[in-house]
Amino acid sequence: MQKTPVHTNTHAPSYYAATANWQTDYPTLDGQIEVDVCIVGGGFSGVSTALNLAERGYKVALLEAHKISWGASGRNGGQLIRGIGHGAEQFRNAIGEEGVKSIFSMGLEAVNIVRNSIERHQIDCDLTMGYFDAATKTRHIRDLEADFDELSKFGYTHEIEMLDQHQVSSVVGSDMYIGGLVDMGSGHLHPLNLCIGEARAAEKLGTQLFENSKVTRIQHGVKPIIFTEKGSVTANYVVLGGNAYIGDLEPKIAGKVLPAGSYIIATEPLPESVYQKLLPRNMAVCDQRATLDYFRLSADKRMLFGGMCNYSGRDPADITATLRPKMLKVFPQLNNVAIEYEWGGNIGIGANRMPQLGRIADNVLFMQAYSGHGVNATHMMGRLVADAICGQAERFDIFANIKHMTFPGGKHLRSPLLAAGMLYHRFLDLF
Ligand SMILES: Cc1cc2nc3c(=O)[nH]c(=O)nc-3n(C[C@H](O)[C@H](O)[C@H](O)COP(=O)(O)OP(=O)(O)OC[C@H]3O[C@@H](n4cnc5c(N)ncnc54)[C@H](O)[C@@H]3O)c2cc1C
Fold first, then answer.
1. DSSP-derived secondary structure letter, 2
2. Residue 307 in contact with residue 278, Cβ under 8 Å?
3. Do residues 181 and 133 make contact, with C-beta atoms less than 8 angstroms apart?
4. What confidence tens digit (pLDDT) does each residue in 282-341 have?
5. Which helix H or strand E contains 170, and what residues bound it?
6. CA distance readout (Å), 401 to 354, 357, 396, 398
7. 397: CATH
8. Which of 146, 152, 272, 356 has the most other CB atoms within 10 Å of its CB?
9. If you average pLDDT over every residue of the chain, what do you get?
10. How many domains would you assign to the chain?
11. Following DSSP, what letter does each residue of 7-55 receive, concatenated?
């Protein structure tokens, strides 16, 4: 079995790394260059921003500390789910009714941006539509019914359907769930192949991509200079997309995003007689708890089962030993199936669970904190950052007007405090 990732310059030894369409091999920045926009971070945030800007003719350089898609973007559950953040209504005072509506609508647009990108750039990343929000409690059913009504009123164009307990087996072969919401406008994909595919598309449009090029310092000014160990980039704009891996680069934003570990195991490929019973319509599935289970089939019909959010800052000693029992609780049928991969990565958590978009200075923009729901949202934010650089900041400013708390406790106490807070939410999940 492939063991847990150690943070190296290669991709985490995941199912995704093992099935990547190709290995990226971009140079290390060596020397001084000048561009319109310098992007820090080669995950979906950085790459989608680069692609958006390159499509509009901007001269772009992207600096990635490790490999393109080395972080959460190359390790996630691959679930492409509608929506941005959790409950935009709570920010009505700051962004108004129009802002609330706009965020809802952008949550749907975000999925289309990903689908269009895959189609336009012909990216082979196993896109499969179909998603099930699974309920384990009556209050989850009520929440999902409210989502169903909201989508229907909005005029959502994709098939949606509430399932009761007897109908659940048509999408998930498990006794865990008492109902849920089917959404054919959401789905799943191979995230690493999507990200490297988008990076290649940006490269074809002239973006200069650099790997093993960690940004160590930014000199702010009319023309900021972005330094790596061996080189520097002078730019008109800087975009920070380091998310949970940003570290100490810009303390003003780093304190607002906390890294939390999430983990996935992948079984051996399952025979048709088994996978057809577990996930008959090949949908991605998430439950509704604070520490949720999420799972789906890969293209070669492995069960990819994720969960176990870890706020302590330390990876578990044995991912499979912790996750396998959770998987067997949902699917006891997998008792004799081998686990072939295990890996984890850092989600960027924000206190109010709304992605953070803003400016550190007029020419330094940032995007981060998708709180575990970023495959679609990163792509929306990439578009909004590109729009803002092009002088169309109306939708960018809806997000920029939302205030985000800096986690208390300083660098060392933040994670333990969040861990304590999440224990409280797990406790609420018991009822
Ligand atoms: C295990 C797991 C499962 C998940 N499952 C899902 C899911 O199913 N669906 C979903 O919607 N979301 C999911 N997410 C969340 C989603 O993956 C993220 O929201 C999204 O990938 C964030 O993209 P990003 O580009 O902002 O960050 P990342 O992909 O983490 O990229 C940040 C990059 O910045 C680089 N970087 C940082 N600092 C510097 C520096 N100083 N210089 C240069 N480069 C730097 C890092 O090396 C890294 O590559 C999951 C996350 C994890 C970890």
1. B
2. no
3. yes
4. 999 999 988 899 999 999 999 999 998 888 777 888 999 999 999 999 999 999 999 999
5. none
6. 12, 9, 9, 5
7. 3.50.50.60
8. 356
9. 93
10. 1
11. --SSPPSSHHHHT-SS---PPPP-EEEEEEEEEE--SHHHHHHHHHHHH
Residue 146 lies in a domain: no
Q: Which residues line ligand 1 (CB under 6 A)?
A: 40-46, 63-66, 70-73, 75-79, 81, 214-215, 241-246, 249, 262, 264, 294, 306, 344-347, 370, 372-376, 378
Find the helix packing angle between 375-389 and 92-120, rounded to 10°: 100
What is the Cα 376 distance to its own chain's centre? 7
Q: Is the pLDDT of residue 415 over 90?
A: no
Both tokens assigned to 65: 């500390």
Distance in angstroms (rounded) separating the CA atoms of residues 257 and 234: 27
Rg for the chain, CA atoms, rounded: 21
Residue 246, SS3 per DSSP: coil
| Atom 37 of ligand 1: nearest residue by CA position | 242
Domain boundaries, position 54:
15-76+192-256+352-410
Distance CA 45, CA 242 (A): 8
16-26: string of b/e by CB count within 10 Å (b at 16+)? bbebbeeebeb
Cβ contact 184:282 at 8 Å: no
Q: Which protein residue has the closest C-alpha to ligand 1 atom 9?
A: 79
